[in-house]
Amino acid sequence: MKNVLGNMYLGIVALAFAGCDTPESNTGLRPEGPPDVLTVMGLTRDYNDATGNPLERAVFCKADDEKVPRLIVSGAVICPRPGFEDPAPSADINADRGDVNGTAQFRIVFDELLNPDAVEELLDEDGNPGCDSFTENCTGSIANTNPVDVTCDGTAVAYDGYYAPNGNNVTNPPGPSLVVTFDATAAQAGSPCSITLKDTIIDKSGEVVPADQRGPFTFNLPAFEFAGTDPVGTDAEPAVVEADGVVAFLFSYPVDGGSIDAGEVTLMRDGMPVAGAVATADGAAIVFAGQDAMETPFVPGEYVATITAGSTFAELAGSTTTVDADQTIHFTVMPPAPFTKGE
Amino acid sequence: MNTTLRTILMAAAVSVAGGLSVTTLDAVAQNSTSGAVRGLVKDKATGEPVIATTVVATSAALIGEQIVLTDDNGQYYFDNLPPGEYVITVYFNDAKFERKLDVSVGKLAQANVTVSSATAGETVIVKGQKILVDSGSSKIGSTITKEFVRNIPAPRTFGGLIGATAGSQNDQYGASLSGATSAENTYIVEGINTTDTGFGTLAANLPSEFIDQTEIVTGGYNAEFGRATGGVINVLTKQGSDEFHGSVFGYFRNGDMAASAKLIDRQGSSVDRETNIASDMLFGAEVGGPIIKKKLWFHVGIAPALRTDTITRIVNRNVDADGDFAADVDPNTGFNIQERVTSYDLDKKNTTYFFTGKINGQLSPDHGFVLSTFGNPATGNDFRQVGGVEGREWKTKAGALDGAFKWNSKFLNDSLQFDLLLGYHTQVEEQNAVDPTMAQIRYDGVQSLSDFANIEAGIGTQCNPIVDPNNPDNVFDPCPVALYNVGGLGFLENRTNNRMSLVAGLTYRVKLAGSHIFKLGFDGEQTSYDALRRHTGGRTFRQDTRGRWTQRQFVGFDAAGDIACGFDGSDADGDPDFTCSARPGGLAADTKNQNLGIYLQDSWQILTNLTANLGVRWERQTGFVAESLVGQQDPSTGEVIPEKAYTIDNMISPRLGLIFDPTNEGRSKLFAHWGRFYEAVPMDINVRAFGGEITNFRRFNAANCDVPYTTRAEMETALGACFSNAPDVETNLGGGTEYVAPNLKGQFSQDIIVGAEHQLMDNFKVGLTYVNKKLPVVIEDVSTDGGNTYMIANPGEDFSAEADDLRELAAANPDLADIYNARADQLDAVSLFDKPVRTYDAIKITAEQRPTDKSLLLASYTYSRSKGNYPGLFSTETGQLDPNLTSMYDLPDLMANRYGAMGLDRPHNLKVDGFYMFDLGTAGMITAGGTVRMESGIPHNTLGGHAWYGDGESFLLPRGIAARSPVTWAADIRAQYGYRINKSMRAELFVDVYNLFNNQDQLDVDEVYTYDYSDPVVDGDMNDLKHAKSNLDLGLQTNATVIRNPNYGNLNTRRAPLSAQIGARFSF
How far apart are alpha carbons B1001 and B998 in whole angstroms? Predict the structure, then answer.
């Protein structure tokens, strides 16, 4: 009996110390091997969430890799997979990148953590390197680590950005990722651009991104084009604008004020040209702005602001766009409420 | 006719009249309110079993007596025995052979009797060890007896006694068993399930003075028991007897009987609090006795418990003695040096009225019943801690009321047994604001307390910021405060939860290749959860750390409503098609569930020392939608809302246990068990996912909503004015009812247990057990479309077949095609979630001495590891108790980094409980009792905020990567003096000292690394974390590193300091 019990006790102890492996995890990274580029995503001006924030869409997805991001964002998966084909990365999507403020942003998503110190500096509030985020508020920067090359029209473009170790293939945004930002107005609108990874991007074990995965990842900057009006006002339904309000013709890039011909951008009140009304460039818009109440140009009345068909405008880097048809904003400026006795 | 002769004749009559003793034998089954005894009768002279001899069981705990005959193997069996000390008498050759033994609830005791030639009429006392080993089952756990409660400095209620079991530990809501969360336990009192139907927690707690035995089963039980993926706590209250017995008792302690609590330093907040006991007493009486001797007994008890805590609310200010316009730091602690500005006391009171009542009746030797009732209604009050005076107090009502009726009959010469149990459980929990009209206004960010000078009485100008005259940008704020509340209490709930249960069983024993005890049973219950959930003032306002104001309010479907809600249906214009209206009075949801279970089990005694327990249990659970919603059109889908929210009917739980006794005397056993255990989904999910809950969320950017720092009323008016305008962001959280994945599987755990027990000497046994417990399938709400819609599913499981079916349905139903196709896509994506993992491996060494009046020892050491990604029915990190509806699986990204050492992983766990009584004869008795608890500290995490789910929801680094809390230990002692007034009357005075060595050990630390929103750094380390970036919102990442919480890693919970209580008991 003693033997039976003794063996039993030994067996129980052996069971207890039998190891168990870490289970496979969908949310895990893939630290084995060199860092793979899973996807490259860009901010788009035509793809926003419910609150109007621009969203990132894939311009490249690594083929036949189960780790590419599958998350559904605003109704669509980032990268396609069986049963989730919308939207697949395509040349059309690649053709229109950058946001309306002129800053282009691209996210290069890896399948494992990178050596953070090799790709990013942490800057303090004064922009000095060596910031310790355990005790200070820091921002990331890759301007000096230069982990990529960015070119537009064959010319190197200065960039910054940061490295985010956060995330995996199901987070929003996915990660870990290297985010590259640059001034899209530095090159002409519509220019072909590319991002190429350098061999200084290494994972935590020192392995570099395989040469065939470093790009170049190509895309085109957004075309310079007319993008609408703010407010929208038609002859039938004119917009109501405050006396000190602003009406704007919107473009996809900051407009070169020198390209505005006063004869082509006009403001009429009650059928007559408004004396002293001057259209000016304000970022990616051409605007007429009211001043203090009761002064020009927005005194009470019925207004029409117009860009005449055929007008041509330039963006800061030199490319131009021609407005094909008349663009108008009909708006009304109401008289101020009468003063009440005693006020 | 004397009793002996009558007994023998009765037994003979049974044998002859039945004619069945050879092929069918007495039914045997211990159950949740009784125990059983079996034994072998042998003739010493021949060594052969003694066949068809009479065996009688008697006890003060048993109405009348039980009589059986030995079978053709010489074995006898008694079942349905109330716990107590028994005498087994074997009649052989006109002599009596008596053997004593103890019967415990839920246990099978063995008492073999060897008979010999003896003088007619002689009574022979059979010597032998009282057997402690339960040779009839593979259950593991422990039993807490009256002796334990009377002599050991134990908690006052049975709920506190669960911690004495090997491997158990406290969690946020009770006692965790075998690595499961406490909400996974089932609490059975008087045979009926008293578990909270809403959240799975303990509801019907009772004072230990009312309890006869508490059986804590941590695993290895047969198909008779179900609906628990943790342990089963089986409680039997005291009962009457043929003599009157009872006690009067009292416990008292106050603030003077406790040592000072060490301060818990916190960085960054000037408002603090201390809670100290003002007085805490429990006193009561219980008495039991005969109504009709040998027929009808009663037992009643009542015990009010009154507790008052003094909450001292404190305002401190940071000191700047060196005038550098920065808070001075204590070099020893690293925390800011503070000084008291003002403080005042608040009294928090709670009164609970515990009671029990019980009647046991035996109508005939074969028919008996038990009728019992018990409860713990309570009233009290409480206060919000950080914030203004107005609207901070609320009144509470809570407690349970239970009734149970048990009937037991035996037929066919006791070979067939019928058990019926009817139960009713009701509980209430009400939170009523003293002033329900005020909306809560909460400031998440760090403010200066001087901002609230109109609200915060007593601070004067002491908290005013001090400006550097040489540099106006340099401002020293002496009184920073975070999470400051102005106005009402915010979310409150009143609920009533009921359960009606019917449990019936037929037990039958037959001989076939050994002997079998078959039991076929039905276990059904209908439960309900009626809730009223509301916000004081009808809504809450909150300013986040970025200055943005949000308003949350409950809304409900309303065709004439002014709030767009629901889904974008056939017009696909991007806007919701339905309307809701605000529900300032709250949302009412009356819901119910039906749980059915049928089981068949066989205890097959293959050999006298080899038993196989085989069982299978089938269960179905049906959850119903809130009554008020049924038949309406679901704004989330356009479908008509059905009556049933979900049905899980594929729950089949096989159980297999093997018990082998190498001694063949019941003194040892080798055992193994494998089983599957399905959860009964608590009904919180009915209310929250199928109760019409829609929260309208509106947000203004900081610049668009300006709220003055004036009075509460003016703040609320200003916020009301803001939110009467169109907000910057508006959305509705929740759709009223959630979609349930087709073929939803039940949540279950799976156990493997291997063990050995051996009785080394009389009254003392040791054991070694290995336990492997897994949780392979869970039920949770998930969103696979970024939080737009949620469904109830089994995360990580493959629902592609169900998705294909839906797509076919979509093709056949063009009107609902969009909905069906969207659901199909979501079902396909359920497999993207990590599969749930929770693996508990433990080896337990136990030593137990049978409790007697003189001594007791219960000791255990457990080495265990608990790893996984899913703690159970609540989040051990955030404390969110929403069973099967936690945020853990809501979005796939919330699961990252969650695999690791679980929040309840304590590798080493040592427990010793015991007492010894020194009998001084006529001078009385001195009893020394004590407990020792030593356990590893818990592992810690590094958490961040999530844009939608808030603080601590993002595992920035892998689970358990931060330093573990140190080993913690404590010792409690009791010194007791007893005096025997006469044979049956005794008076006792005692003093308990808790945490004798005043070890105010660290129990927990602040795990929030940052309150910023930030996604997990998967498999990262602290260097990676330095580069972690914050998100402005979901998907809106910035290049700014997260701001570290200054209290990250700092101690935030200590063991309570040394304290004492005094008590007295008079028993008769």
Answer: 9
